[in-house]
Write a structure and sequence with these properties.
The protein is α+β, with helices and mostly antiparallel strands. The protein is built from five helices and seven strands. Strands 1, 2, 3, 4, 5, 6 and 7 form a seven-stranded mixed β-sheet that branches. A hairpin with a 5-residue loop joins β3 and β4. The longest helix is centred in the N-terminal third of the chain and has 22 residues. The two termini are 14 Å apart. The mean pLDDT is 93.
Length: 144
């Protein structure tokens, strides 16, 4: 699964979607963490490109819950992460495992399905690095 953010995504829809989440994050210092609205918006747009691609090209749907990503075609919650380089993927998985463990007791637990994309900030080319499923202990790469 490969795409380009500039040519394959509705940029106006992406910006509106990212601004909505940015406003939620910016509204509290605990989630803002000293960042400006613009800094959060850029980060959100970088990550949400992959979500928009799944929605626009693979019939996924938006998950309207706060800080959630998408539902796949089976109506299962999917967490979508984007990182800049392949060698960062293990760190993304590590953070997802930690978040999954911490959120077990939340009213809105972490998704058991994780899509990890690598996105080039210069060329705006993205590709799916892997699909991971949580086995009760950690996220494991789907092999088929």
């Amino acid at each position: 699964m490969k795409f380009n953010a500039e040519t394959d995504i509705d940029g106006q829809a992406l910006r509106l979607r990212a601004e909505k989440e940015t406003s939620q994050i910016f509204s509290k210092e605990s989630t803002r963490k000293g960042r400006s609205f613009s800094e959060i918006l850029v980060t959100n747009m970088y990550g949400q490109v992959a979500e928009m691609y799944l929605i626009e090209h693979h019939r996924f749907t938006d998950d309207p819950r706060k800080y959630k990503d998408v539902f796949n075609t089976n109506s299962e919650s999917v967490e979508v992460k984007v990182t800049e380089f392949d060698h960062y993927v293990p760190f993304v998985i590590e953070r997802a495992n930690k978040a999954h463990k911490e959120r077990k007791t939340w009213s809105s637990p972490h998704s058991d399905i994780l899509y990890v994309f690598v996105g080039n900030k210069e060329t705006l080319d993205y590709y799916l690095s892997g699909i991971y499923f949580h086995n009760g202990e950690s996220f494991c790469l789907q092999t088929s």
